[in-house]
Automatic annotation (TrEMBL):
Transmembrane segments: none
Domain VOC intervals: 3-120
One Pfam family matching this protein: Glyoxalase
Protein name in UniProt: Catechol 2,3-dioxygenase
Organism of provenance: Rhizobium lusitanum
Amino acid sequence: MTNPNLIIFYVKDPAESTPFYRDLLGHEPAFASPNFVAFSLNNGFSLGLWRRSSVEPQPSAIGNRGELGFMVEGAGAVEQHYKDWKARGLPIAQELTTMDFGPTFVVLDPDGHRLRVCEPDK
């Protein structure tokens, strides 16, 4: 069985995006080169930041065509993350709201990638 374990965001410059994710994730990257930086995540996944100009084959389009979700558990955990991330000055794309699946909000990284916080499915 094949298990996906790497999420890649195409970024303008990994060196510019690294401080954002270092602060957000609370740790240093596991790998760093001029064109690619990888952060290990606690669930066995890695988040890669790949310099857009060096991606092969070149992507056909860029933009908000997906999101990276952070599912947090516990009463008030989504609201606490919202307050923390807003206090850090992260750009809010969707204010804290309740949708069909529960409380949620969205922030943007330096390249405009959407990062959604929500509760896990119950």
